[in-house]
From TrEMBL:
Residues 43-194 form the Condensation domain. Gene3D superfamilies: Chloramphenicol acetyltransferase-like domain. This is Surfactin synthase subunit 2. GO terms for molecular function: catalytic activity. The gene is srfAB.
Length: 223
């Protein structure tokens, strides 16, 4: 699959006129298998290892055994692969390979039922394991600078200021006498807008019968 994608089947070289794509030989196995679980430090080393743009490949895949029939898969992409809409092609093909070529998308009604079940499962998970999950991230992120831990707060702990955007309001209105005169004009003339100087608008009042143009300034025309 990766040999079919333009970016992942090329390497990048540099010349006098800048960087350019270089076709590479097909890679038949991009997966590195680990038969024992890896520590967090070992996984970090795999993820943070720099890419060789000249020799490639731009994708690394690690399959880590966690025990009997349990595996952890790491997909590590160079940012040049995941930037842009071409990434959708990779995920679409991956989905078809994983689900099978004859995989049928469920109907909207079935998707609705699946979505409700998924929400129920998430709610159950948060209710039963939510505090353990929050404690897990507190232990690992609590000592780091610049990390906002408000995402760990529950709904009851969030303040109104944290959950609501402040929206400014601009209230305006017309004087009753002016409003009455405008309504009279609307009954008698056709109103269209025209620019007043360069900083506002006013209505250009065109009499339907005589085709004469009259002007009326309204409050707020200079805004």
């Amino acid at each position: 699959m990766l040999n079919e994608h333009f970016i992942t089947r090329h390497n990048i070289d540099d010349g006098p006129e800048g960087a350019f794509w270089v076709p590479r030989e097909p890679v038949f196995n991009l997966v590195t298998y680990h038969d024992t679980p890896l520590t967090d430090e070992e996984i970090y080393a795999l993820v943070s290892a720099p890419f060789d743009l000249r020799n490639g490949p731009l994708v690394r895949i690690h399959l880590i055994s966690l025990g009997a029939e349990r595996y952890r898969t790491l997909f590590i992409f160079h940012h040049i692969v995941v930037d842009g809409i071409s990434t959708e092609e990779i995920w679409d093909k991956w989905r078809k390979r994983y689900n099978g070529i004859d995989y049928q998308v469920p109907s909207l009604q079935e998707q609705g039922v699946m979505h409700q079940q998924l929400c129920h499962n998430f709610a159950t998970l948060l209710q039963e394991k939510g505090e353990q999950m929050r404690e897990f991230w507190r232990e690992r992120l609590g000592d780091l600078e610049g990390v906002d831990l408000r995402f760990l707060q529950t709904g009851r702990q969030l303040t109104t200021a944290a959950t609501r955007r402040q929206i400014g309001e601009l209230l305006f209105g017309f004087d009753e006498d002016i409003s009455r005169r405008v309504k009279l004009l609307l009954r008698k003339y056709k109103l269209t807008t025209y620019p007043v100087r360069a900083n506002g608008h006013g209505p250009a009042v065109t009499q339907n019968v005589r085709a004469k143009i009259r002007c009326a300034r309204l409050p707020g025309g200079d805004l």
